[in-house]
Known about the structure:
By secondary structure, this protein is α/β, with parallel strands linked by helices. 39% of the residues lie in helices and 24% in strands.
Amino acid sequence: MSVDKIVAQNVSMRFGDVLAIRDATCTIREREFVAIIGPSGCGKSTFLYLIAGFEEITGGTIKVNDKPVTGPGPDRGIVFQEFVLFPWRTVMENVTLGLDIQKVPAEEARRRAQKWITLAGLGGFEDAYPSTLSGGMKQRVAIARALTYDPEVILLDEPFGALDVQTKNYMIRDLQSLWTEANKTIVMVTHSVSEAVLLADRVLIFGARPSSIIADIHIDLPHPRSAEDTSVKAYEQEVTRILSAEVDKSMSMERRAAA
């Protein structure tokens, strides 16, 4: 039976005089894939970083496995939009980085890494350096590294944002397969309604700043999903309708503030 993995209760986050998030509350269950979407600047990535433990929360609580988040931990792995790889390390050496830090024996680390390198479509590139890889391949390395480290929760901060459309479509397909194989809890921030609906079990929509979670859309469709499926398009329309209203509200607030 699925259990609660992440519980956020009345989360608020303030930066100086700016209240970015106000009373955000949600529960993410074990092995769920949850996408977070909202207007630009509404605090989506900030909320993800609070789960990661990168920021000190202003108000409310976030718990992972019923323990308050007080900082980063090995139970949470994060993949950023930019390709955060060490250029002097090969693909294999980048993927085994977390295990090296944990002092896992080299043979065991390589065995665990090889599984995710192969599943990520990087077989044959184990000894390649990041400078020789395409953007999509670099992001595959970052995702394989997070999975090899074996955290319970994977946090994705716009993982396809720096990719071209064709590469992004391949990555969405591959991530569906990797998530099914990994059996992890995944929380992904995205600006793309299509990405959210194709990948997630649920889509959390953040409102205009100061933001809270204004909608929790359950995507009741099996994986893998196709962008051409009429059911997928129906969910995209529902999310877009809610999101568009919040974007209009956000832009109206900015115009009033500038007046």
